[in-house]
Each structure stands twice: as C-alpha cells, then as structure tokens.
Recover the amino acids of this structure.
C-alpha cells in the first residue's frame, strides 16, 4: 500500500459528534486500557506504536470516549515525524463518524505543531482519506518506511 500526503493548511473543520462522545489525548494511567483495546481489536505492531505515542508528553495518541468507554484511537507523529496512524475504531462503534473525527483531530494537531503536510503511511482506505482530508498518493511509496520491518 502506498503512503499518502495531506495538505494540512486545507483541513476541514472538525465534524460534530454526539454530545456524549469526546476526543482527547490518552492519559498515562489509561495506557493499560488502550493497549488491551488495540491488542484485542487490531495488531501487536499497533500496540507497539501506541506504547511509543503514550510515552510522549503530551501524548501523541488521541482517544474517542463515550463516558468511560473507549471507542477508538488515533496516533500521530510517532513512527516518523509528521506521520498519521495507526488508527482504529471499535467494530461496535463504527458508523458514528469516529474515524473521520479522529483523523481530523490528529491532523489538526500536526498542523498546530507546525507541519504543512502530513503523511499517512501505508494508507489502507485511500478513498476515505482522499474524501475526508484531500490526501493524495505519494508516487513510488509502496515500499515506504515499513518495508523490511521486523516480523
């Protein structure tokens, strides 16, 4: 899968979510909940990236919550400077706009930190990224930073 480039100076505003759903940085004492969630629903490599994101101050992983329930997460500026991802939403919480909201919240953070462009590494749902944030495929990026990673 190729990487995608996002012009951060053209980001749309944050979408409205249900009033009881919040997006915020994960806190250190929540790491056991987040890492278990990522391990259960996604992959051990994503657990590793979330661990690094949690070690940053402020945290470089945003979470979507409904009360005390974790619904999703999005990492940014972790694997490489300016990178977005990984990100994921609980399968039972999909269809509420959380993926879009987490993506845009993370990209807004990158922009606020001075980046003009963000990179979505090994972008999966390319049409989604094109539509939500104007991402474009980076030519010849299929091998990217994740190529030859340890298994």
């Amino acid at each position: 899968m190729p990487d995608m480039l996002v012009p951060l100076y053209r980001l749309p505003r944050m979408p409205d979510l249900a009033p009881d759903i919040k997006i915020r940085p994960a806190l250190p004492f929540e790491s056991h909940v987040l890492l278990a969630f990522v391990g259960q629903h996604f992959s051990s490599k994503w657990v590793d990236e979330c661990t690094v994101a949690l070690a940053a101050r402020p945290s470089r992983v945003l979470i979507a919550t409904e009360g005390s329930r974790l619904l999703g997460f999005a990492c940014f500026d972790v694997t490489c400077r300016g990178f977005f991802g990984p990100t994921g939403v609980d399968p039972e919480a999909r269809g509420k706009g959380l993926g879009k909201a987490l993506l845009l919240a993370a990209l807004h953070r990158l922009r606020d930190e001075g980046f003009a462009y963000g990179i979505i590494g090994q972008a999966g749902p390319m049409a989604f990224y094109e539509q939500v944030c104007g991402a474009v495929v980076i030519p010849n990026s299929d091998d990217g930073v994740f190529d030859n990673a340890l298994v």
